[in-house]
Amino acid sequence: AGCGAIEAPGGTAAAGGDAASGGEFKLASRISDDVKQNKKLVIRLSYHDPSLAFASPIRQGVEKAAAELGVDAKIVGPTGGDANQQVSELQTLINQGQVHGLAVSSASSDALKPVIAQAAAAGIPIISFNTDNPGSAQMAFVGQDLEKSGESEAAELVKLVGDKKGKVVVFSVDTGAGWSHDRFTGFKRGLEGSGLEIVGPVNTGNEPSKAYNTVESTMAAQKDAVAVASLDCCSFTAAAKWIKDSGNTGKIHAVGFDVLPQTVEYLKGGVVDMTISQNPVDQGYRSVKLLVDHLRDGTPIADVDTGAVLVTEDNVDDVPVEG
Amino acid sequence: MTALQSDARPQARASASRPSGWTRLLHARESGTLSALVVLLLIGAALAPGFLSTQNFLTVGQQIAQIGIMAVGVTFVIINAEIDLSVGSIYALGAIVTGLLISDGLPWTVAALAGVLSGAAAGFLNGALTVGLGIPSFIVTLGSLSVFRGLALLLSDGSPISLSSGTPGVAEFTLLGQGRLFGVVPMQLIFLILTVLLGWVILSRTRYGFHTYAVGGSQEAARLCGIDAGRVKILAFVMSGTLAAFAGVLGLSFLSYVQGVTGTGMELTVISAVIIGGAALFGGSGTMWGTLIGVAFIGVLQNVLNLRGISSFWQTVATGAVIILAVAVDTLLRRRTRS
Amino acid sequence: MTALQSDARPQARASASRPSGWTRLLHARESGTLSALVVLLLIGAALAPGFLSTQNFLTVGQQIAQIGIMAVGVTFVIINAEIDLSVGSIYALGAIVTGLLISDGLPWTVAALAGVLSGAAAGFLNGALTVGLGIPSFIVTLGSLSVFRGLALLLSDGSPISLSSGTPGVAEFTLLGQGRLFGVVPMQLIFLILTVLLGWVILSRTRYGFHTYAVGGSQEAARLCGIDAGRVKILAFVMSGTLAAFAGVLGLSFLSYVQGVTGTGMELTVISAVIIGGAALFGGSGTMWGTLIGVAFIGVLQNVLNLRGISSFWQTVATGAVIILAVAVDTLLRRRTRS
Amino acid sequence: MAEPAVLVEGAGKSFGANRALDDVTLHAYAGELSAVMGENGAGKSTLMKILAGLQPPDQGRVVIHGEQVRRFEPAELLTRHRVALVPQELALCRERTVAENVLLGTEPGRGPFPSRALLERRTAELLAELDLDLDPRTPVGRLDLATQQLVVIARSLARRCRVLILDEPTAMLTPAESERLFTLLGRLRGSGVALLYVSHRIPEVFALADRIHVLRDGRITASWRTTETTPDEVVGAMVGRELAEEERGRWADPAAPVLARMDGLTGRGFAGVSAEVRRGEVLGVAGLPDSGRTELLRGVFGADPLTGGSLRIEGKAVTFRSPAEAIRAGVAYVPAERRQQGILPTMSVADNIGVLQLGRASRFGLLSRRRLAGDAAERARRLRVKHASGVQGIGELSGGNQQKAVIARWLSIDPRLLLLDEPTRGIDVGAKAEIYDLLGGLAADGVAIVMSSSDLPELLRVCDRIAVMREGRLAGVLSREEATEEKIMAIATGVAGGEDR
Ligand SMILES: Nc1ncnc2c1ncn2[C@@H]1O[C@H](COP(=O)(O)OP(=O)(O)OP(=O)(O)O)[C@@H](O)[C@H]1O
Ligand SMILES: Nc1ncnc2c1ncn2[C@@H]1O[C@H](COP(=O)(O)OP(=O)(O)OP(=O)(O)O)[C@@H](O)[C@H]1O
Ligand SMILES: O[C@@H]1[C@@H](O)[C@H](O)OC[C@H]1O
Ligand SMILES: [Mg+2]
Ligand SMILES: [Mg+2]
């Protein structure tokens, strides 16, 4: 009331709301023209923090797709993971009117909604990858079902622990992020009725030595923990390092995510029991391909589940290392 | 601050003067940065496709708004010969307080006010400790950076706070950060302009502003002129804290989302902007326009790099290099004019 | 004018003699921090289970080693009345250069040397820009913090570098950070002790050390006495860079792992330690022992909080609060002693 | 005549539009003391700094003992040409010991390791030469300013230079200390050192110098052998006009009402001070350094807390908890430390003068810059503050003009009681005379003035009465008629006990 002159982007007052239902997507005419004229397509994947170790397998996939499909595809995003800056960059790209397709992954499922809506309104095909932005104007999601992956992690852990009772300390590189929240929700569900008590999730942050120190200090106060579980690539390696250093190999169980090179070593050394791969190379590759195929051939855009492969010491040599 | 060689600033001090007319423009303290900004604009126009459009400029305006609002407060602190390293944490604190209260169902106006006031309180604490204990503000705010960050994490329990559009008041609240006046001008840009104007009036047209320069130049001399230097400094910290929290509230409104680590490291960008804008770290000089130019410089630089599709790692390199370059050019130009 | 022989200022001259023995210890510049450390140790012994064990102290020693080594370099910079905000980034740079070269199959000694030298070069750049352009080092290193961080990210292409135990030389290399002398004393602790000793000799026993205090105390006086203040400062930055990179190399050896963001924010911890240790931000004062005490203080604080099972968010709050407290106590004590 | 030890030829130096030195040519000889005199801002320090390598000249050349200076760096001048400077502004490392400061840059010892024992021994020897009883291990910051000045002099002696430059070395010394310095300079002259000496004190210069050079507006306007000139002639060359030693026009009326009365006033650095000052009276405060004069004035002004006694102004008891309260009561204070406490260093001349008039220059809470500047310009004109424009930075003015600007500021509140601490320290004869006139005029208008000074002739010239302090106590008060330099010193040093008022 009283601010009738102020409008939300796209004209609806319900900013950040379910803009997905805002209306039909209409491809920008400049994009269809460029496709017709066979111009080199420009695809940008905005990852929430390219300085994360996990960005590099995605980048590999993107590069592979770019070479294969003959398009200009790149990973962009804010070093350090500042959501504000990620939105800024996306807005700039949208305004500039030179990209033909966008894929985004966000730390928060809500933060990107307005800018996703803005892209859609500008007629730029936009999808999410790695982390979902449900309820936004995205056209599809390429990645794993995050809640389900958390649930499987928990189920595996319950098997490993057997009928021991005690605490499970959960770590995440960014407890504040949407993907972390989703995996944790699944994880809790998977642990229900097991009698295991959850401590955490504890936020480690992305800086390796700080992450290690956080694990160390947390564990100093959790002497009776029977297991640690990580919700991501990067707190997992910190937790594993602590298990190894503190002589807890074989005493404390450890499960987590992704197949970073160190994770492989820890698996082989018996320091950790299991990790879940979400096939990040494929996430990068399929995102680009989905957009390009849609633009070139009108292939309809639909969700792609990159799956969740349970990796243990036994099958570790069969899955590609991520990084 | 460091490098506060008291003997190293004989003439730097002298240049707070205000010549008039053309000479004024040319000799202004901000001229170096202004020329750097002009060069950057020319480079943008020549090399960055899509740079020269109203839409793009409005977007840049929106992007710099939060940094700019914080920089206004920090300008007061730096002219006072102090520093505030805690603004990034206060930004988070303000946003989290507001977010929690909105989620609890309080009217958004009350919630936002509470958020801003939490920043004022944090700023007051910084000021009172600095003045009361006589410890350098670099240390006080280095410590409080951690304290406020910890509080932000504790309040939010480390989880993100997302404003769901179902909650009453959220739609209105998000207009602060996402709305556009007449559907065109970003509200955040309006807030920035208002804040800068207000800051300019206070700094150049009030006794308090005058006293700020006096205290920053020489605390003892100012005190002997009957100025309550402690009060002047504390007020500067309160402004800095208030505006940082206000920026945090805008950030929350913009992203509908905040978490404990939000705003980490922001202080460095803000301080860079103020210094690029010509304020001297040893206090006693600096202007609101300079700060605005410094903020614009950082925003445009980011924009040009984004438009050129420079990778984020190169952006990190470029931002750092250009900060040094801008200040170097400014310093050299000013040295040249003098001799 | 009348010439009356009178020695006019009895009190001032008499009170100035240097105290010795116990009084000297009590009046030492570091006494405030030392007492804070003692209090902390007592609290630890009383409240933290497992605090009083050789094993625990050795662990603390190892944990503070990298911060401590960096703090030695930064002490030189701060006594020079300058600051180095870029050490966290140089830490990453040194580690990444070393990691890449080891992965490329170079002998680990060559790789480590190259890593350390990259830090020396970075430090030289900081110093040369500060001295050559006459810009405050706060700004130069604020910029270079970003530049070196970007370089670290670019060199590693954003991916982590992890030393696989299969690579030749890695086993030896990891001993630097993970090994223990006689199976007991962590190698990192040994490196810390050696670095502090070396730093102490340079600072208190060499001409260069004398000149460092002089330049920091009054650049004008130092210049007048024919001291090349620029050279003194540049050397301090080189030491700071070299030691930061060396700490990075140890970090790599310890974690067998490094990535572009490694060491982010470390500068604040290092600077806190130096300042808690009694070095004045305006230069001209500070000692190696003070720095060691400051580093130990931060390490023990962390340790006590860990042993007490304080959550990491509360730890963030506590660390900040205690930094302020330690410096406040130190300041008040010193003020009391003086009057 | 032999080849000059120092030869300056056609030297020029500008700071922006300000021509500090213009085509200066000067000779100084070994075994002689050459004095350089001139008004504030004439360019004396600039010339000395060039000779010490602190800044290069824009034009001209400098030849030392036959060798032209190629690189203007203190290191070069010190070690290659053996020129040392005692600068006008104290440059010392306050946290370090006397020994470290004295031998800074030439620390004795083996390789990179200086020997503390040697350092302290050599320093002790040098201090003995200066007749200075001082522990070489004392941190310099704990010494009073005069002793610090002596440490700087010792430092320059340590270099055993062939050319020694002293820029106003006696400004902060007691007469006794100055005498010791003069003896020493005599010895150096005897051993063939060329001495260059800057001072505003005419008697001193005439007692010491072999030659006198006068700088005016950056140019050498006159040079004499001392024996060939007179003080009047030198002053005339400096200020460009005759300067009459005028007495104060009107002395205070002993029956005038008392304006301020102190009763047993006590604070840090002084105790039990009881004194009064009448309207229209100038009360001088004399005493040795550290006798508590500065502290007393600060205490009265509310800059430092009082711990005992009472202060009455026009019969009403007052307690100033801050300078702000004193200012409201019509008390003004011109501090001794002009650079640290007097000027607002980053602000303009107009702002410096107008800082106490912000209320008057405001409308609806908003400042009018124009009113402020206009008012300040008028005040600057009345005090003849030599400046280019109101917006000029205060730091660009010469010391004397900065001081006049500070006084102009304080006069803007129309004070009833004016406190001045060393108001003419480092100020040239012309400006001094102007300040004396000003004080006389203010007194005639009924202002009560308390003025502390180390310059006894100055006190004798302007004061109605002179209070002498010793070790924080008021040791005696002399009327204008009875006061002489000898009597003041006798009371100040405790040789004679002055009866209380
Ligand atoms: N670094 C500087 N920058 C700008 N102006 C300067 C600088 N140094 C000196 N000046 C100006 O040069 C002129 C000569 O100054 P200088 O210090 O040599 O005077 P001086 O004769 O020593 O005066 P005083 O008796 O007050 O010491 C003055 O006008 C002064 O303001
Ligand atoms: N900051 C301080 N801390 C401790 N003692 C001080 C301080 N300042 C002054 N004093 C002491 O107070 C006494 C009076 O000093 P004050 O400066 O008033 O002397 P003064 O007569 O004005 O000397 P000067 O001629 O050097 O200005 C001295 O004994 C001095 O040592
Ligand atoms: O999104 C990423 C997640 O998928 C991975 O498992 O861990 C790091 C996160 O940034
Ligand atoms: Mg001079
Ligand atoms: Mg005094």
Provide a descriptive summary of the structure in words.
The complex is a heterotetramer, with one copy of chain A (323 residues), two copies of chain B (339 residues) and one copy of chain D (501 residues). By secondary structure, chain A is α/β, with parallel strands linked by helices. Chain A has helices spanning 29-36, 55-69, 83-96, 113-121, 146-161, 178-191, 208-220, 233-245, 261-268, 280-297; strands at 6-7, 42-46, 72-76, 101-104, 126-129, 141-143, 167-172, 197-203, 225-230, 253-257, 274-277, 304-305, 309-311. In chain A, β7 (167-172), α6 and β8 form a beta-alpha-beta unit. Chain A is elongated. The model of chain A is unreliable at 11-22 (pLDDT under 50). Chain B is mainly alpha-helical and 339 residues long. Chain B has one domain (30-334): ABC transporter involved in vitamin B12 uptake, BtuC. Chain B has a two-stranded antiparallel ribbon with strand order 1-4. Chain B has a two-stranded antiparallel ribbon with strand order 2-3. In chain B, β2 and β3 (185-186) form a beta hairpin. In chain B, α3 packs across α13 (288-307) and α4 packs antiparallel against α5. Chain B is globular and about 55 Å long. With 501 residues, chain D is α/β, with parallel strands linked by helices. Chain D folds into three domains: 4-239, P-loop containing nucleotide triphosphate hydrolases (Rossmann fold, 3-Layer(aba) Sandwich), CATH 3.40.50; 251-330 and 415-500, 3-Layer(aba) Sandwich (Rossmann fold), CATH 3.40.50; 342-413, no CATH class. Chain D has 17 helices and 24 strands. A six-stranded mixed sheet of chain D has the order 6-9-10-3-11-12, sandwiched between helices. Chain D has a six-stranded mixed sheet with strand order 18-21-22-15-23-24, sandwiched between helices. In chain D, strands 2-1-4-5 form a four-stranded antiparallel sheet, with helices on one face. In chain D, α6 links the parallel β9 and β10 (194-198). The longest helix of chain D is centred in the middle third of the chain and has 16 residues, at 175-190. The N and C termini of chain D lie far apart (58 Å). The model of chain D has no long low-confidence stretch (mean pLDDT 90). The chains are: A alpha/beta (323), B mainly alpha (339), D alpha/beta (501). Chains B and C meet through α6, α12 and α14 of B and α7, α13 and α15 of C. β1 of chain A pairs antiparallel with β2 of chain B, so a sheet runs across the interface. Bound molecules: adenosine-5'-triphosphate (2 copies), beta-D-ribopyranose and magnesium ion (2 copies). One adenosine-5'-triphosphate (ATP) binds at residues 144-145, 269, 287, 289-295, 336, 454 of chain D. Chain D: It holds the Pfam family ABC_tran. Chain D: This is Ribose transport system ATP-binding protein. Chain D: Keywords: ATP-binding, Cell membrane, Membrane, Nucleotide-binding, Repeat, Sugar transport, Translocase, Transport. Chain D: InterPro entries: AAA+_ATPase, ABC_carbohydrate_import_ATPase, ABC_transporter-like_ATP-bd, ABC_transporter-like_CS, P-loop_NTPase. Chain D: GO terms for molecular function: ATP binding; ATP hydrolysis activity.
